[in-house]
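Hi team,

Below is the intake form for Ferric reductase from Aromatoleum buckelii. Please confirm the fields before the structure is written into the shared record.

FORM ID: S-0412
PROTEIN: Ferric reductase
ORGANISM: Aromatoleum buckelii
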Amino acid sequence: MKTLLASFLALVTLAWAITSSSSPAEGASLPWAVRQEALYLTGLWAFSLMSLAIVLATRPAWLEQPLGGMDRIYRVHKWSGILAISFAALHWLIEMSDGVIKSVVGREGRLPKEHEGGFLEIMRDVAEDFGEWAIYALIAMLVLTLWKRLPYRLWRYLHHAMPMLYGMLAIHAGFLAPLDYWTSAIGALLALFIAAGTVSGLRSLSGRIGRARQVEGNIEVVREQASGLTEVVCHLEDSWRGHQPGQFAFVTFDHVEGAHPFTIACADRGDRRITFQIKALGDYTQGLAARLAAGQPVKVEGPYGRFDYRRGTRKSEQVWIAGGIGVTPFLAWLESLQEAPAEAPAAHFYYCTRQRDDDPFVARLESLCAALPTIRLHVVSTDRDRPLTAEALHARHAGERQPEIWFCGPRAFAQALRSGLRGLGMGRVRFHQEAFEMR
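The structure came back. Fields below:
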């Protein structure tokens, strides 16, 4: 993700540098020239990243392969938005710095504003106001997004304002960009960003995101597996295209609440039935079992994701690690291998749970792994065992072929394992992680 965003910003910066060097500010003193170019550059950074964020919000399935899955796409979307708002705030601060420069060096050497008169002049005034209002709204949106206590339902409705805010920023960028930009490389990029972002925003406002992958169906079974754990089995219509083990889908049980991503916790049997294991982790999933019943309609969008052990390196030793409800993609993997055990890879599978005796998944995992002799199951129950650590993994697998880790579980657990492995000299271990977050 860091490499992608850095490369994206480098491209924008290069186009800006080429344009700036070919048309330098004549007659401007250094402080005013620096301010002007910094204003242009931060504005370009902010707008280009916001364009990227709004394009990725449309869930472009064609980008799953190059970017590594829809969870990675949403991660880039999230950080594109955060960086865009940060650069927009910096852009606004630079705009406000003219008073400071006046007090230090005076007005001499200040660049005159472009005046074209007529409609263009009016639109530039409007665009300037739009940009300022949009920045204030985006900063407020960022604060609400990072405030995890805000219910997802409210956040989702507030997030619907993003395409309109983007439209205001597009007007701001289009009319306030210097006229000579439009005959240069940066102008071509800016036009591309405006076109792609506007189309994506209109798709969002019209409710067309993911429509081609949406399938309706009915809930067949709702079963409370344990306290706070609900199993939901859905039967979908004929247009369901099937799924690969490890994929997820956006599921709508309640149109007011909207779609939520859940991993498909079963193999594809060809009967258009899919199973979700849903843990009560937030305001929506709390008490979900009481709100659902067999026969209710459901809408499923997908499948998405590339969390698939078959993408691993053949020469590597596979290590599978599931934490809590992160076991769901592994359940689908194991089920899919029951009819072809010879295709199962050699893997150590660590399932980490708080209480083995009360965990409904343990018996299921033991039954599935019993038919797959190349997969060695290790149940780590923290009420009786030491928690799984990087040191324990290093001690067990350091002498084997370079291990390749497939992880699904709490983010803090993944970060602890990653940093621990780096500290033990295993930083080059390939660490595949299902890292989906809606906000």
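SUMMARY LINE: The longest strand covers residues 214-226.

Thanks, M.
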